[in-house]
Amino acid sequence: MKKTLLYISILTLSIIQGKMEAQVNNDFKAMIEAATKAPSGHNTQPWLFKVNQSSIEILPNLADTLPVVDKNNRELFISLGAATENLCIMASHLGYYPTIKTDDKTQTITIELGKSNNIQKDDLALQIAKRQTNRNVYDEKVVPKDILSILENQTLHEGIYRYTISKEDSLFSTLKSYVVRGNEIQMNDDAFKDELLRYMRLNNKEVEKNPTGLTYKVMGAPSLPAIISRPIVKSYLKADKQNKSDIRKIESSSHFILFTTENDTFIQWVDLGRSLERYLLKISELNLAYAFLNQPCEVKSLSDEMQKEVPLIRGQHPTLLLRIGYAPKAPYSPRKNIEDVILK
Question: Of 62, 269, 312, 339, which sits 20 to 30 A from 261 (CA to CA)?
């Protein structure tokens, strides 16, 4: 009788433990799925995840780098920082307390996850699946001061700075001129254009084959056979055409948002990504639209010039430039299957 009771107890504990492990596994997958909703340059989705018993590691996928436009992988690690923030937000939503460790030598991020009943859920978790980069022309409506105040109250990590620039500010025109000059440099660089073209998905077949990159939908184009669409796209990769499009988009927007860092280092790139993602999720919550215009930050000669010549950011590293405003929802970019980004 005692042996039977002992066996039943062991079996019961085994079943409970199995259920708990299954729940943790499902929770960790939900966190990783949230992490993969982060933005990335050319929608490369340059992350890999290693699941441990009580932690998740985020590693760079060096097969998805952009050696021309992102020579030092700065934008890649900003994306990993954004993925980290999404993962932590979802962790708290599921009742876990996340502790983040960044390793400068291995350039990896580890999130230790401890279950707790005293975790306050982060409402931004509801925005993770809704957030999107909207590259369309906006409706020219100005974002009200009270909404801007909410955005400006979003926390920043140490060494990260954010500037909100209105059209009335002379810096707005200055930044617009830097975007124009950035296009002139990038659109006259064959290597840049080749890299961009490699990440364009011009029809349904290409999207299904490779769910990364910029799809025809987010670019506002029809789905056409590559033999037809690729020559058309190439013909538009010219400075004058890009500037005409970007100027129209800038003028339809309400404000520029410029992010800078004190140091141009791995740690601050990750911290910038985390600060950025919370800001973008709040933009989503407030029903605003945003898009990146990083050309002057990506071209080193322009970035160096801005660092010296723009008094507001002198000595800081200009890293990300956004425009914000109001616009109807745009198509969403596809994502890799979650199983393809988890290391076995």
Answer: 62
Cα separation, 78 vs 290, in Å, equals 17
Cα torsion for 206, 281, 50, 116, to the nearest 10°? Answer: -150
Model confidence, pTM: 0.92
Contacts of 212 (CB under 8 A, 6+ apart): 42, 43, 44, 45, 64, 199, 201, 334, 336
**261-318 residue pLDDT tens:** 999 999 999 999 999 999 999 999 999 999 999 999 999 999 999 999 999 999 999 9
Q: Which of 320, 204, 218 is nearest to 259 (CA)?
A: 320
Task: For residue 322, give both structure tokens.
Answer: 């956004």
Q: List the 160-166 sheet strands across, edge first.
A: 160-166, 255-261, 317-325, 289-292
Cβ atoms within 10 Å, residue 218: 20
Domains and CATH numbers, the chain: 2-131 (3.40.109.30), 145-325 (3.40.109.10)
Distance between CA atoms of residues 140 and 159, nearest Å = 32
